[in-house]
């Protein structure tokens, strides 16, 4: 992978592959000379190392093995743990269905382990339970007796380690329709999977450790989707895609953001967006608000606040604007619809948020230069789905909306996704639940708008903006606690990030 804006290679540990891609990589490794049994042995040994690092004093473990290759990984771990002197209880759910898993079970039993049946008494006598039940092929709800076993594991007292993915969690979507093993740590193999990091995935997976098993493939940056589905955003990628600034720069070089919103009683939202845009380096930020909100919207003296009473007033402001952010505090009144109509008819670069998304859902149109920033409820209205349906398949919904509107779609929530047609999906695994507070979305829209105004392409600005937003919230949470955080609390940390991330200085001729 590389960014079209600034060629940055994505490290293997940050790549995200869906189930079929992981299987293709594994098949490629086997075709290239790696024995399937050797891969399983490597996976089991890697998982055992992770177990000992996380729980170095544990002496009593139970390993639950299913019938597939995930169970085979568990048999390897159980054998190695037994050979290392640990007390191991081995639970087998039946005869393995693959040759390599059958061989792994045979070696475990030959080493002196005894296959047992599941019982709560067995669970209560152990310190760590290893979940090697189902692996990455799960879709839909768990069936009996698996549902009861998973429930019993979750209700028991031992720590829980899952191999590859918590059993019951969909590796592609992050959905656990009928429940899943709630792991403290997941050791995943070959590549990270989106389901571990978005939707319900973070709740079930715990800490995720990637063991790539030395399965590599040349990354064809011209056809990235053939190698991986997407990648996790990280500081290296963000820093190399942030806008540079000459020593001779002035505010006119850093773009002009116009925030359109602030209907009656909602003046705070555009102020949040505008202040965030300033903190992210926008040269000038204006707010176009309803006349009734003019006084309240003037809270920040650095913002240029203008009362607009109708479409004609707003139209006069657009020629001097590089990026329009529409939606914060907009409402859905006659005035709001008039403001929205002017902005979407404008062919410039636009960030569409909040009520502007709800108005877009009523009258869908292609928005090639736009970034849409829906939360699951807004995404549901845009895609004609319920919020529950959105959350059940966040990756697909983000890509569907990007295609439908020919735009960049930022699907907010745990494991925020950034999708744009023809580009790998970006996933942000940073941030925390304290960000679930009013105004956070307004701040994000201002951040993205500021980066776009400074010349960053829409999808790159969205990815970098999402990461900065999440990391700034982490820093604010570390400083004063996560719960009770206000959206404006992250502004000082946005300023820190904007100053420290561009590690490269502008050079003449760059």
Q: Please, how many helices?
A: 19
How many beta strands in the DSSP annotation? Answer: 18
Shape: elongated
How much strand content do the residues show? 15-25%
- Portion of residues in helices? 25-40%
Radius of gyration (CA) equals 25 Å
For the largest sheet, list the strands in their spatial order. 1-9-18-17-16-15-14-13-10-11-12
Average pLDDT reading: 92
Straight-line N-to-C gap: 22 Å
Quickly describe the structure:
This protein has helices spanning 19-31, 36-54, 69-83, 99-110, 120-124, 146-155, 201-205, 235-241, 268-279, 294-297, 311-315, 334-345, 355-362, 376-383, 387-392, 394-405, 440-453, 458-480, 491-500; strands spanning 15-16, 60-65, 87-92, 115-116, 128-132, 159-163, 185-189, 207-211, 230-232, 256-260, 284-289, 304-307, 323-326, 349-352, 370-372, 408-411, 416-419, 425-428. The protein is of the alpha/beta class.
Report what the structure shows.
The chain has 510 residues and is of the alpha/beta class. It is built from 19 helices and 18 strands. It has helices at residues 19-31, 36-54, 69-83, 99-110, 120-124, 146-155, 201-205, 235-241, 268-279, 294-297, 311-315, 334-345, 355-362, 376-383, 387-392, 394-405, 440-453, 458-480, 491-500, and strands at 15-16, 60-65, 87-92, 115-116, 128-132, 159-163, 185-189, 207-211, 230-232, 256-260, 284-289, 304-307, 323-326, 349-352, 370-372, 408-411, 416-419, 425-428. Strands 1-9-18-17-16-15-14-13-10-11-12 form an eleven-stranded mixed sheet, sandwiched between helices. A seven-stranded parallel sheet has the order 4-3-2-5-6-7-8, with helices on one face. Helix 2 crosses helix 4. The longest helix is centred in the last third of the chain and has 23 residues, at 458-480. 55% of the residues are buried.
